[in-house]
Design goal:
259 residues; alpha/beta; Rossmann fold; 7-stranded mixed sheet; 10 helices; globular
């Protein structure tokens, strides 16, 4: 059984609110969250790709958005992207990314056993049927191929960004691992991430709920001059995660192998 959809978020569009794509394209290169997250993710992608001995790894980024993660993934292999949003794919092409396709996670337009690595970076929480999506990831993976998942954690952290992004749920790590195993994967690594800003994010979201404050997106909340410093602080978790798992965090991360 797949993870339950948040009752308040049923029958939502598959895409994020339209205005969020232009904002995402604008901030992905400079906002501390995306800077830090890419540093963490790149350390995991590098390690996964180092185990692939059959030439240049072939990578699929499901829900590639406006393409900043695809640029990063291209450093480690032949990176392909897919997204349900035509707006997102247009922004990818503005970055010069041409290996991008339109389609959904639950019905990937690729042959069986095409990729060495499938990434879904803040994507699985968008799916009405996360189990169906994960089974599709497994189908397009070569034997022994891996998935790298990054998802928002803990429903009590639900906030504005979940709403504008049309999230269906936030996960605890056990909830995520349960559905990953049901899809036919063997867990290799599982941890929370972003313990550094857990308390500030919790406090800001509680304050916003209490006061009714709303903005277009949380991506514009903050002080732009601090993005570099905050991004380095968040990204420094990549060093910690090389040696240990984190007991809680704003996000959860999982690496699993097709069996």
């Amino acid at each position: 059984m797949s993870s339950a959809v948040n009752p308040a978020e049923k029958e939502l569009p598959r895409e994020m609110m339209q205005h969020t794509y232009a904002i995402l394209y604008e901030v992905e290169g400079s906002h501390w969250w995306y800077i830090g997250r890419r540093r963490i993710l790149s350390s995991f992608v590098k390690e996964i790709c180092s185990t692939i001995k059959s030439g240049r790894p072939k990578i699929l980024d499901v829900g590639c958005g406006t393409g900043a993660n695809l640029v990063m993934l291209g450093e480690f292999g032949e990176a392909h992207g897919i997204d349900v949003s035509h707006d997102a794919l247009s922004f990818c092409r503005e970055r010069g990314l041409e290996r991008v396709s339109h389609g959904s996670a639950e019905e990937l337009p690729f042959e069986d056993e095409t990729f060495d690595l499938v990434t879904a970076l803040d994507v699985v929480e968008h799916l009405d049927d996360d189990l169906a999506g994960l089974k599709e990831f497994r189908r397009v993976l070569r034997p022994g191929g891996r998935i790298l998942l990054f998802v928002p954690a803990f429903m009590f952290l639900w906030g504005l960004q979940d709403e504008v992004s049309h999230h269906r749920r936030r996960y605890t790590l056990p909830e995520l691992l349960k559905v990953v195993r049901e899809a036919g994967f063997e867990i290799e690594r599982a941890t929370y991430a972003n313990i550094t800003f857990f308390l500030p994010i919790l406090m800001v979201r509680k304050l916003m709920r209490l006061t009714g404050i709303r903005t277009e997106t949380e991506n514009k909340i903050g002080i732009s001059a601090l993005n570099g410093v905050l991004g380095k602080i968040f990204g420094a978790e990549s060093s910690i995660l090389r040696h240990m798992n984190l007991p809680f965090g704003v996000s959860a991360l999982c690496v699993a192998r097709k069996i």
